[in-house]
UniProtKB/TrEMBL annotation, chain A:
Organism of provenance: Sparus aurata (Gilthead sea bream)
GO CC field: cytosol; eukaryotic translation initiation factor 2B complex
Entries under InterPro entries matching the protein: eIF2B_beta_subunit, IF-2B-related, IF_2B-like_C, NagB/RpiA_transferase-like
Record protein name field: Translation initiation factor eIF2B subunit beta
Similarity comment: Belongs to the eIF-2B alpha/beta/delta subunits family.
Keywords for this protein: Cytoplasm, Initiation factor, Protein biosynthesis
Gene3D superfamilies in the cross-refs: Translation initiation factor eif-2b, domain 2
Phosphoprotein keyword on record: no
Localization terms from the record: Cytoplasm, Cytosol
GO terms for MF: guanyl-nucleotide exchange factor activity; translation initiation factor activity
Function: Acts as a component of the translation initiation factor 2B (eIF2B) complex, which catalyzes the exchange of GDP for GTP on eukaryotic initiation factor 2 (eIF2) gamma subunit. Its guanine nucleotide exchange factor activity is repressed when bound to eIF2 complex phosphorylated on the alpha subunit, thereby limiting the amount of methionyl-initiator methionine tRNA available to the ribosome and consequently global translation is repressed.
Record text on subunit structure and interactions: Component of the translation initiation factor 2B (eIF2B) complex which is a heterodecamer of two sets of five different subunits: alpha, beta, gamma, delta and epsilon. Subunits alpha, beta and delta comprise a regulatory subcomplex and subunits epsilon and gamma comprise a catalytic subcomplex. Within the complex, the hexameric regulatory complex resides at the center, with the two heterodimeric catalytic subcomplexes bound on opposite sides.
From TrEMBL, chain B:
Self-association state and partner proteins as the record states: Component of the translation initiation factor 2B (eIF2B) complex which is a heterodecamer of two sets of five different subunits: alpha, beta, gamma, delta and epsilon. Subunits alpha, beta and delta comprise a regulatory subcomplex and subunits epsilon and gamma comprise a catalytic subcomplex. Within the complex, the hexameric regulatory complex resides at the center, with the two heterodimeric catalytic subcomplexes bound on opposite sides.
Primary gene name: EIF2B1
Annotated InterPro entries: eIF2B_alpha/beta/delta (IPR051501), elF-2B_alpha_N (IPR042528), IF-2B-related (IPR000649), IF_2B-like_C (IPR042529), NagB/RpiA_transferase-like (IPR037171)
Keywords: Cytoplasm, Initiation factor, Protein biosynthesis
Major place of residence: cytoplasm
PANTHER family linked to this entry: TRANSLATION INITIATION FACTOR EIF-2B SUBUNIT ALPHA
Source organism (scientific name): Sparus aurata
Protein name: Translation initiation factor eIF2B subunit alpha
Family note: Belongs to the eIF-2B alpha/beta/delta subunits family.
Recorded GO CC terms: cytosol; eukaryotic translation initiation factor 2B complex
Protein's job: Acts as a component of the translation initiation factor 2B (eIF2B) complex, which catalyzes the exchange of GDP for GTP on eukaryotic initiation factor 2 (eIF2) gamma subunit. Its guanine nucleotide exchange factor activity is repressed when bound to eIF2 complex phosphorylated on the alpha subunit, thereby limiting the amount of methionyl-initiator methionine tRNA available to the ribosome and consequently global translation is repressed.
Length: 346, 302
């Protein structure tokens, strides 16, 4: 029967996704880029909306929240999964409000205005069923998927405004977004790129090979040489794993060093990050160094290998995202447009 | 309702619940004034409320009372726009006023819930003077079985810091009282600084007991995070650019303002801390960066 078959098919897919997420973290499975993870998560959420059994918006949100909790628990360092879930939850809220006909702009955030004018406890329990809700939500998720597909291109399109001829650009490690950004600028301008190799995985080497294939003059340097070389650099352009709510970054290790060196030389630091990397988390002092990769360890030696660094917002000059350029102090505003405050904790 | 009764009611509110914020007491008093008011027009109502707020600021000159009064006035204006008829309007105002008071009495709990996660085990916290919000945050952290120790500044001229230390000792939190002048000395041992605020200004800076600015400058120099905890009704429409810009009516106690002729001989009770020195603000509207504060104010007053 189509009913139970669809359900088992759905649960199978969810399990497969969770398994992949788990493996991706331990280093044994294929390493996927965050754009891919975001796309797969959103596709899976669309499938859940289409195939799971739910009658009102509240039920759907519960289902998605539960699945979301499992997904984030499978791989806590991959924040794009949680971000996409929160985006979809916000979409559901918006579609529900639109179906009900109320003006949902006013209802969104807690604000002083809302405190003063609200007439009572809002009855937002999302229990009213609407027939048109399902196709509307699926359509909105499709729009989200289209947006996700275009992010790298949208960012790369802004490259010519920021990179000028004969400039020396520094970057660290390997970021697909920065790669596309630099390659797009290379079509019309000639410039040099210095790549810090980012030990111990040395992803900078792959980045350098890829850039030089596109005809860009590239130099690879060790991480220790970052400060020494910084005086000759005009701009620093980096990618990041996550953008935090206070405008700070969670980026590959070595980025904080790079940012401090750039600040010391007053070199602008530009971060290329698509909007799906924006996370409502604020930096807690404990999440650093909680990610260990498989490597050979001598028996009496403890090797700590943090994979991520925290970069405070004061060291960042500009964020370039698929919707344009923003200052770090503006990130809180973008966050309030993407996510609903009640979804910050899944 | 005449001046003496009004002031007496305000004082009684403060006495009845010493834990209540002075802005909340002010709003409660104004709500009571509204209920007893015999005015015939909305404009008359606004006028008498303005007069009442002035009486209250004459009694207690802190920024919080002023911001509470302005918020209430704004509340009246917004409500009166919706209903033209005065009696209907007054009923709605009274209902909403009670609801508003209920909500803001929950603010401290919301702030504590947001902030206590930033206190990790083994943390050493520095705080300034006596703040009920900071006390609530530390209470929540202690209830979550976090181990931390606190340094409190004595905070002259009224030694309010000692009161804070007493309250913390009751919670079994190890606390040390330090001289106001010892802030720079103590900062190398400290992990984070948490202070309350009497008022949060439009730029995202704060107005708080004198000595806060000093603490902020020192923590910036030592690279320690400087957190501010404040409820949202303390947001005030001021934009001081430096210490001189803060109006005199906030700087000195109400009695001082009435009796002393030459204010330049008096010591101010508050100072202004600019937003560049503040890391994050914890309010019942969420965790805000200083740039987000003006957004909130615009949403209210637009």
């Amino acid at each position: 029967m189509p009913g139970p078959d669809k359900e088992t098919d759905l649960t199978e897919r969810i399990e497969a996704f969770l398994f992949d997420l788990n493996r991706g973290g331990s280093g044994a499975g294929p390493l996927r880029g965050s754009a891919e993870t975001a796309r797969e998560t959103t596709a899976l959420l669309r499938r859940i909306t289409a195939q799971a059994r739910w009658s009102s918006a509240g039920d759907l949100m519960e289902i998605i929240r539960n699945e979301g909790r499992r997904m984030t628990a499978a791989q806590p360092s991959e924040t794009t999964v949680g971000n996409m879930i929160r985006r979809v939850l916000k979409i559901i809220r918006e579609e529900y409000a639109r179906s009900r006909g109320s003006s949902e702009e006013a209802d969104q955030q807690e604000s002083l205005h809302k405190l003063l004018t609200s007439g009572g406890v809002s009855d937002e329990n999302f229990r009213q069923p609407f027939a048109a809700l399902k196709p509307n939500v699926i359509e909105a998720i499709n729009e989200l998927l289209t947006e996700l597909e275009g992010t790298t291109d949208n960012i790369a399109m802004q490259a010519l405004e920021h990179i000028h001829s004969n400039e020396v650009i520094m970057t660290i490690g390997r970021s697909r977004t920065v790669e596309a950004f630099l390659k797009d600028a290379a079509r019309k301008r000639k410039f040099h790129v210095i790549v810090a190799e980012c030990a111990p995985f040395c992803q900078g080497h792959e980045m350098a090979t890829s850039l030089s294939k596109a005809g860009i003059e590239t130099t690879v340097i060790t991480d220790a040489a970052i400060f020494a070389v910084m005086s000759r650099v005009n701009k620093v352009i980096i990618g990041t794993q996550t953008v935090l709510a206070n405008g700070g970054l969670r980026a590959v290790n070595g980025t904080h060093t790079l940012a401090l060196a750039a600040k010391h030389h007053s070199t602008p630091l530009i971060v290329c990050a698509p909007m799906f990397k924006l996370s409502p988390q604020v930096r807690r002092l404990s999440f650093l160094s909680d990610f260990y990769r498989y490597c050979e360890i001598l028996s009496k030696v403890n090797v700590h290998c943090p994979v991520f660094d925290y970069v405070p917002p004061e060291l960042i000059t500009l964020f370039i995202s698929n919707i344009g350029g923003h200052a770090p102090s503006y990130i809180y505003r973008l966050m309030s447009e993407l996510y609903h405050p009640e979804d910050h904790e899944l | 309702l005449d001046k003496i009764v009004l002031v007496e009611y305000f004082r009684a509110q403060m006495r009845k619940d010493p834990d209540m914020a002075s802005a909340v007491a002010a709003i409660r008093t104004l709500l009571e004034f509204l209920k007893r008011d015999k005015g015939e027009t909305i404009l008359g109502l606004r006028e008498s409320l303005k007069w009442a707020t002035d009486c209250l600021t004459g009694e207690d000159s802190s920024v919080a009372v002023s911001s509470g009064g302005e918020l209430f006035l704004r509340f009246i204006s917004l409500t009166s726009l919706e209903h033209q008829d005065l009696s209907r309007c007054k009923k709605v105002m009274e209902e909403r006023g009670e609801l508003f008071l209920e909500k803001i009495s929950m603010s401290r709990t919301k702030v504590a819930k947001l902030c206590h996660t930033f206190i990790k085990d083994g943390a050493k916290i520095l705080t300034h003077s006596y703040s009920r919000v900071v006390l609530r945050v530390l209470e929540k952290a202690a209830a979550e079985k976090k181990r931390f120790s606190v340094y409190v500044t004595e905070s002259q001229p009224d030694s309010a810091g000692r009161q804070m230390a007493e309250a913390l000792r009751k919670l079994n939190v190890p606390v040390t009282v330090v001289l106001d002048a010892a802030v720079g000395y103590v900062l190398e041992k400290v992990d984070l600084v948490i202070v309350g605020a009497e008022g949060v200004v439009e730029s995202g800076g704060i107005i708080n007991k004198i000595g806060t600015y000093q603490m902020a400058v020192c923590s910036k120099a030592h690279n320690k995070p400087f957190y501010v905890v404040a409820e949202s009704f303390k947001f005030v429409r001021l934009y001081p650019l430096n210490q001189q810009d803060v109006p005199d009516k906030f700087k000195y106690k109400a009695d001082t303002l009435k009796t002393v002729q030459n204010l330049s001989e008096e010591h101010p009770m508050i100072d202004y801390t600019p937003p560049s020195l503040i890391t994050l603000l914890f309010t019942d509207l969420g965790v805000l960066t200083p740039s987000a504060v003006s957004d909130e104010l615009i949403k209210l007053y637009l």
